[in-house]
């Protein structure tokens, strides 16, 4: 019985730095130079040069697809072996290529933004460009919010050693940080800070609390450096946003997420309306682990279950295949396909980076799933989640590469939907033990805390931070105050006294992501949309799945609310849809409370 499998990357490049990879990089480098030279010497789009700009756009799209192919390979190798210095060096080159892709898109924006409406209309109607109409329209609109071309080129170049350098500095600081973990038996173990969050998921509250307290002492030792990174990233964004003509810093986040302000408002209005239900879920979780209220380090605490299931890799795959097979045979078949073609790396081994992800090449349509399987139900759920991402990409095959560039909001929908199918399959399986079912339902309650409380907390903090950052750098003391206040506001009287985490702004990697701003609300969006989709699936049965697949196919080709309206017939700008999504979790809460009484004594 294996603990996992290793992927095969040779279909991307036969060998790292082999002849095919070296040639590919040379062609990419020459392609960037050729495109940018020709684009800079071509007048903006007009009635006479449409054929030239069509050619240039298709060149840029091919380079974008090539970069995704190279990124999949390099990020895959460096994640699977973080100790390999050659892979780490290659990641720096990847950053340069990504900057070149951004520069290419800047040239396209400059060409389109001031084009006459009639010329643009004719341009997007050209046979080779029809498939890219939405992306071209989006480029034109965002192009209207750009600085002069020479400043945009300078900003792109400076981003590598300036803006993105803040993110790399944070990664370096957090990657090297250790803390002294004090165990209840008196042991003190020097522990990487990356393990702090998992220790806060321990069933023993004394261990959770110690990890929280001593982990925060470590974060306090680097707080000034983390604050400098956070201020640097936000300051850069605010200055560029203002120079580009954005009225509010959230406008950039909404643009990246491809959602309207109405949609974001509708989600938070629904959260407010459903607050009594959400608080009921928190109370149920607290009661199940023997508490009246929760501190930060209790959010992900497991229930100490008797005879908790543990799985071999083969058993875990079987559980997932069975669940997918009952509800969605096409998804099961895809899971088998990705495993047979060695697209998955799940073997736990030294030098692997923590975490999980799925990346796709827009050049050959292949995906790769990265994770470390240790035998838990959560690991099976992670495989479901990442397979959902890969399946999403599979549904988009044949679309133009730029039309496969879907936003994070919609990226988190297919993955979470796959998790829900897994959970539903386990709960419906008569062979599943009560303990396993309770584990599944505990994850569901933890999801409510994570997506409907934790992430809104992050959003509230980040919004308040950016508002203050507009007036100058924000101190460590003030960052701690803003974080604690956000937690207190969102959790209310469900938070244990002094149970906030004032250093959450330092320990949460998402605040330091430089490729996406406001790396928070898209998760709540994706979770709730998947809940809504699951409700529709249960109501409509198999007839829902073709609509779902059409939705996935077009997620990169329209604003989120328009895709949902066109393919699913739902209104994401309406509070009612999101309320129904939240309240669709009510039965899971009832089953959770029932099983807690049945499985755990004295609850």
Which segments are poorly predicted (pLDDT under 50) over 5 or more consecutive residues? none
Annotation, overall tally of beta strands: 5
Q: Please state the oligomeric state of the protein chains shown.
A: single chain
Distance between the termini: 37 Å
- Strand/helix succession: HHHHHHHEEHHHHHHHHEEEHHHHHHHHHH
**Coarse shape:** globular
Largest sheet: 3 strands, mixed
Could you report the average pLDDT, rounded to the nearest whole number? Answer: 94
Explained architecture:
The longest helix has 36 residues, at 434-469. The protein has 25 helices and five strands. The strands form two sheets. It has a three-stranded mixed β-sheet with strand order 3-5-4, sandwiched between helices. Strands 1-2 form a two-stranded antiparallel ribbon. It is globular. 65% of the residues lie in helices and 3% in strands. It has helices at 19-40, 50-80, 85-112, 117-124, 133-143, 149-161, 163-176, 196-199, 205-221, 223-244, 249-257, 261-273, 275-288, 313-327, 329-340, 377-395, 408-428, 434-469, 476-491, 504-507, 521-540, 545-553, 560-567, 575-583, 586-599, and strands at residues 178-182, 188-192, 344-345, 357-360, 367-370. The mean pLDDT is 94. With 603 residues, the chain is mainly alpha-helical. Helix 14 runs antiparallel to helix 15.
Question: Which tags fit this structure?
Answer:
603 residues, mainly alpha, two-stranded antiparallel sheet, 65% helix, globular
């Amino acid at each position: 019985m294996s603990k996992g499998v290793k992927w095969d990357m040779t279909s991307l490049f036969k060998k790292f730095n082999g002849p095919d990879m070296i040639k590919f990089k040379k062609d990419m480098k020459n392609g960037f130079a050729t495109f940018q030279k020709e684009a800079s010497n071509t007048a903006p789009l007009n009635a006479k040069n449409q054929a030239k700009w069509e050619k240039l756009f298709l060149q840029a799209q091919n380079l974008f697809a090539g970069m995704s192919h190279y990124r999949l390979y390099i990020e895959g190798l460096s994640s699977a072996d973080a100790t390999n210095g050659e892979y780490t060096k290659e990641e720096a080159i990847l950053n340069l290529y990504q900057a070149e892709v951004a520069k290419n898109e800047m040239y396209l924006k400059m060409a389109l933004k001031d084009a006459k409406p009639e010329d643009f209309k004719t341009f997007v109607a050209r046979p080779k460009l029809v498939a890219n109409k939405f992306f071209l329209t989006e480029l034109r609109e965002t192009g209207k919010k750009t600085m002069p071309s020479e400043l945009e080129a300078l900003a792109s170049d400076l981003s590598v050693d300036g803006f993105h350098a803040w993110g790399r500095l944070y990664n370096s600081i957090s990657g090297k940080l250790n803390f002294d973990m004090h165990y209840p038996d008196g042991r003190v173990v020097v522990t990487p800070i990356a393990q702090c969050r998992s220790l806060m998921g321990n069933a023993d509250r004394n261990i959770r609390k110690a990890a929280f307290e001593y982990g925060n002492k470590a974060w306090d030792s680097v707080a000034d450096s983390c604050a400098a990174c956070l201020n640097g990233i936000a300051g850069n964004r605010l200055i560029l946003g203002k120079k580009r003509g954005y009225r509010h810093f959230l406008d950039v986040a909404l643009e990246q997420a491809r959602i309207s302000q109405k949609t974001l408002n509708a989600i938070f209005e629904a959260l407010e309306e459903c607050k009594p239900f959400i608080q009921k879920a928190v109370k149920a979780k607290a009661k199940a682990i023997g508490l009246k209220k929760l501190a930060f380090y209790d959010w992900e605490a497991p229930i100490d279950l008797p005879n908790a299931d543990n799985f071999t890799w083969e058993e875990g795959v079987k559980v997932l295949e069975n669940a997918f097979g009952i509800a969605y045979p096409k998804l099961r078949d895809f899971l088998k396909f990705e495993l047979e073609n060695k697209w998955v790396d799940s073997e736990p081994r030294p030098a692997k980076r923590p975490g999980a992800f799925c990346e796709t090449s827009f050049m050959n349509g292949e995906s790769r799933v990265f994770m470390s399987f240790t035998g838990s139900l959560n690991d099976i759920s992670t495989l479901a989640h990442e397979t959902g991402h890969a399946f999403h990409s599979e549904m988009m095959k044949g679309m133009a590469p730029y039309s496969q560039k879907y936003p994070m909001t919609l990226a988190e929908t297919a993955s979470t939907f796959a998790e829900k199918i897994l959970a539903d399959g386990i709960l419906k399986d008569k062979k599943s033990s009560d303990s396993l079912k309770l584990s599944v339902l505990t994850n569901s309650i933890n999801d409510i805390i994570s997506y409907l409380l934790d992430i809104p907390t992050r959003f509230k903090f980040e919004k308040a931070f950016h508002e203050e950052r507009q007036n100058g750098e924000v101190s460590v003391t003030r960052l701690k105050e803003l974080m604690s206040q956000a937690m207190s506001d969102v959790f209310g009287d469900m938070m244990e006294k002094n149970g906030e985490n004032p250093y959450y702004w330092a320990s949460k990697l998402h605040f330091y992501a430089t490729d996406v701003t406001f790396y928070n609300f898209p998760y709540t969006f994706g979770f709730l949309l998947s809940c809504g989709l699951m409700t529709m699936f249960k109501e409509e049965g198999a007839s829902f799945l073709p609509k779902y697949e059409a939705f996935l196919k077009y997620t990169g080709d329209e604003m989120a609310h328009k895709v949902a309206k066109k393919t699913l017939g739902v209104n994401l700008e309406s509070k009612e849809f999101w309320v129904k999504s939240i309240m669709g979790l009510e039965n899971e809460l009832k089953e959770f409370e029932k099983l807690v009484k049945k499985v755990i004594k004295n609850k």
